[in-house]
Structures are given as C-alpha cells and as structure tokens.
Write a structure and sequence with these properties.
Blueprint lengths: L4 H16 L3 H9 L13 H8 L1 H20 L11 H17 L12 H11 L1 H18 L2 H10 L1 H4 L7 H19 L1 H9 L10 H9 L1
Length: 217
C-alpha cells in the first residue's frame, strides 16, 4: 500500500529529530565514562567538550554533530516525494535535527545548542550561506573571544545572506534564516545574559586581532 505524502514527511522529520538526538559529546563521553553535562558549563556541545576534555575529544564531537546535520538534510533525497518540494523539506529536516541535538530524546532532553548540527544542514541546503556564516563566526571570535556571541551573530548574518541565491528561492531562504537565527538566539540565551552581566567566559587565546594590536603598541 502506498504511503501518503504527509505521512512520509512526518516520518522524515521524526527520523531527522532522532538522528539529531544522537549527541556526539554524550555518545563519546559514555565510551570513556564521562558526562560533560556535569563539567564546565554543563552544556553537551563542542565548546564545553573543548574546555573540559581537550581538542581531540571536541573534534570528534564536532564531526558527529555536523555530520548528523548533513545526513538529516540529505534524508528527503532518499524518499520519492513527487508532490512535495524537496528544498523546504531538507531545510525542515535540518532544523528538526538541530532540535533533536538541543532536546535529545535519548539523553533526557538535555543536549547542546544546535549550532554545529545546523551548520551541517546548511552546508547541504544553502552552501553559500554556510561558508559566509563560518567566515563571520571566525571573524567575531578572533575579535572578541566569545564563542556564544560569535555564534548568535553568525546566525543573525543569515538574514542578509538570504539576498544571495539561488538555493531555495528568496522566500525560502529568508524563512530559514529567520527561524535558524531565532533558534540559535534562544538556545544561547544564557550566554547573552552572562555577556550582559559581564560573566561570560572568554577564550583569550583566540583573540588574534587583540593580540596583534597589543604587539604593535
């Protein structure tokens, strides 16, 4: 019996969410007997993985989290959906995977903040924007040393990047940009509160521009 398009779409979104729920830091952490949610900031993301377990562990975490975003965005290509546009569904699956990363069903709905998974999905559905977001993220990070601020501003940069085509059409790109930037701002709300209070952690070692200015004085 043929499966209707709405059922297939719902199944794809559920599969993307479950894929997103496979948290890189928590899976790798179980292999070595640690839960990074009990260390550092308590977040199950790449930044806390780097701060608490070192760069090798963090690299594995980022690879898994970005990779599942890529796979989630590719899921619709594996299912014939003649009556449904593919690009919006790919974008929706990417967002579902990011939501799974933040609220993972397999780990008590306590995960990371979704940025790595989202950038993986963007690399598939909106490659130009993914490059621009990473470049802007690095620029802000090297200038300020604040990872959370860099991530929020990089996600916000998706809105002006929506003017660049041709992926998804202007309306599709703008919709995705607004949803993604709002989602990242929400998941980083504690970072923004700490930033306003002056208590946000700063990676001084990555402030390359500040170090160069000090060296020139």
């Amino acid at each position: 019996m043929a499966v209707s398009a709405p059922v297939l779409v719902a199944g794809l979104l559920l599969a993307a969410y479950l894929l997103g729920s496979l948290s890189g830091s928590l899976i790798l952490g179980r292999l070595i007997g640690v839960d990074i949610r009990k260390s550092g900031s308590g977040n199950a993301g790449g930044t806390n993985a780097l701060r608490t377990r070192g760069w090798r562990f963090a690299l594995g975490v980022v690879a898994i989290d970005v990779g599942k975003g890529v796979l989630a965005a590719l899921l619709p290509l594996a299912v014939p959906l003649e009556s449904a546009p593919v690009w919006p569904l790919q974008a929706a699956c990417g967002m579902a995977a990011a939501a799974g990363h933040v609220w993972p069903v397999f780990f008590g709905f306590r995960g990371g903040k979704g940025a790595g998974t989202l950038i993986g999905a963007l690399a598939v559905v909106w490659p130009v924007a993914s490059v621009g977001v990473v470049a802007f993220w690095l620029l802000v990070l090297f200038s300020t040393g604040y990872v959370g601020l860099s991530t929020v501003l990089a996600a916000a940069a998706l809105v002006p990047l929506a003017l660049l085509g041709p992926d998804g059409g202007l309306a599709g790109r703008l919709t995705l940009a607004l949803i993604a930037s709002g989602f990242i701002a929400f998941t980083h709300r504690d970072n923004l509160r700490r930033l306003c209070a002056g208590t946000e952690y700063r990676f001084e070692k990555v402030r390359l521009f500040a170090r160069r200015r000090r060296a020139q004085r």
